[in-house]
Design goal:
The complex is a heterodimer of chains A (217) and B (220).
Chain A: H1 6-43, H2 47-61, H3 65-78, H4 85-110, H5 114-122, H6 127-157, H7 169-180, H8 183-216
Helix pairs in contact in A: 1-2, 1-4, 1-6, 1-7, 1-8, 2-4, 3-4, 4-6, 5-6, 6-8, 7-8
Chain B: H1 8-11, H2 14-48, H3 51-65, H4 69-79, H5 89-114, H6 118-126, H7 131-161, H8 173-184, H9 187-217
Helix pairs in contact in B: 2-3, 2-5, 2-7, 2-8, 3-5, 4-5, 5-7, 6-7, 7-9, 8-9
Classes of the chains: A mainly alpha (217), B mainly alpha (220).
Chain lengths: 217, 220
């Protein structure tokens, strides 16, 4: 049996941390793009488009992320796509993030006074022009803190990708535990690494929120 | 290419699914009660407790909120036996869920407590209420009422999170789904049905908790 020193364990976990970071960024960026599209749908004048976005958000917020990942994994295999854990995890987490980001951003848009919409309408701007030039620039400012805060949820969400065989921090922890029989030490290190990744982000989000609030007061 | 979906062979396993639902509901119920109780205690510590206790409660909240639930669960189930604490999967799941919910509940309840108008407390003091009485009757009750919708959302998130507990062989809904798909290889259909069940559970739970909140907690 090979002996693992604490440094060996920590170094291997650090290497796996890369994939947690990469997957988080993919899911966050992808979720942002899909989320923005859904936000347009949610705000659109058409009732059918609106309700599609509404149902999408409610379904993804009302079901476990783990089930979404399983469905992405087995569902893509079913329609003949050669799924890898990479693809399934990226797609699953992207769809999950998009639902939450849509809801967060819709809240920010709802915080813009109705007069702004009416004023831009009276200037004969089209729906997209109203969003692009009047509403979104204002909503953007208040949207930053909760969006950064949600990044923490995405990072923690990537831990579930370990269940469908994606080798990131949690999966690496399980694998190292099986090799070393030191679960207490390994999972402590895993938790510390997640904390080291997430805490600065949530702290930054809190600072941003304070700043926005001070700006409004 | 044709896709054949066979939901019948999945629904034939309904006793297993129902058992999974029962476990999910049971785990959620127990950890909601314990998690909220612990959350109230921690929220009190964060606002009114002595300084060391405040720091401990604060670090606890940050530590839990910045690590994934699955790691907390694995730590409790796989990590603690190394210290001589052996737990059944069910007990480990409940402990992890209580820990997780309590940390989020603490922050939510604290926000409610801090929103209490100063005059309310002064009025209560001038009526010669003891500090304990002031906290439970004047501060806590309206605080819970104010933040109840946020707490309901958090409880639902914890219920959905309990799907992960199947990974340590707690026999809740997602574990039942995994078992069924290993029997009949209808993975996609099983997880569709499990996912829809979770969706219905989440909607039912929201209605139930909103009703409970207005009917029993703050009914007047």
């Amino acid at each position: 049996m090979v002996d693992f020193s604490i440094w060996d364990i920590f170094r291997n976990l650090l290497l796996a941390l890369r994939w947690t970071v990469v997957l988080s960024l993919i899911a966050f960026a992808g979720g942002g793009l899909v989320g923005l599209t859904l936000l347009f749908a949610r705000l659109s004048p058409s009732k059918i488009v609106q309700s599609f976005a509404l149902v999408y958000v409610q379904v993804f917020q009302g079901t476990p992320l783990l089930m979404q990942l399983f469905l992405a994994y087995f569902g893509m295999a079913l329609i003949g796509i050669d799924t890898s854990p990479w693809l399934a995890a990226s797609v699953g987490l992207t769809l999950y993030s998009s639902a939450f980001l849509t809801e967060i951003w819709r809240g920010c848009v709802a915080a813009i006074p109705k007069g702004q919409w009416e004023a831009s309408q009276s200037l004969a701007l089209s729906f997209f022009e109203q969003l692009r030039y009047i509403i979104l620039p204002q909503a953007f400012k208040i949207a930053i803190p909760p969006t950064v805060g949600f990044l923490v949820q995405v990072i923690k969400g990537t831990a579930l990708a370990s269940v469908i065989g994606f080798i990131e921090l949690t999966k690496a922890g399980t694998m190292i535990t099986n090799a070393t029989f030191k679960p207490f030490l390994v999972y402590s290190c895993v938790a510390v690494l997640y904390f080291a990744l997430c805490f600065p982000v949530s702290y930054f989000a809190k600072q941003l929120e304070r700043k926005v609030r001070r700006g409004q007061a | 290419m044709r896709i054949e979906l066979d939901f019948i062979s999945v629904l034939a396993e309904w006793p297993m699914l129902m058992k999974g639902v029962a476990w999910t509901v049971g785990l959620t119920a127990v950890s909601t009660v314990l998690g909220l109780a612990l959350g109230i205690g921690l929220a009190w510590s964060r606002v009114h407790g002595p300084l060391p206790l405040r720091a401990v409660a604060g670090s606890y909240v940050e530590a839990i909120r910045n690590t994934p639930f699955i790691v907390q669960l694995f730590f409790v189930y796989f990590g603690l036996p190394a210290l001589g604490i052996r737990l059944s999967p069910e007990l480990a799941s409940i402990i992890a869920m209580v820990i997780n919910l309590s940390a989020y509940a603490t922050e939510i309840i604290r926000a409610g407590i801090e929103a209490t108008p100063r005059g309310q407390i002064e009025a209560a003091m001038s009526l010669a209420l003891k500090p304990g009485q002031i906290f439970t009757h004047v501060v806590l009750a309206p605080a819970l009422q104010k933040v109840w919708p946020a707490l309901v959302s958090q409880i639902i998130i914890v219920m959905l999170g309990s799907a992960v507990c199947g990974q340590i062989s707690t026999e809740e809904l997602s574990h039942a789904a995994n078992l069924i798909q290993s029997r009949n290889f209808r993975a996609f259909e099983v997880f569709i049905i499990a996912t829809l069940t979770y969706l219905m559970l989440a909607m039912a739970l929201r209605r139930l908790l909103n009703w409970l909140g207005t009917r029993f907690l703050f009914g007047r």
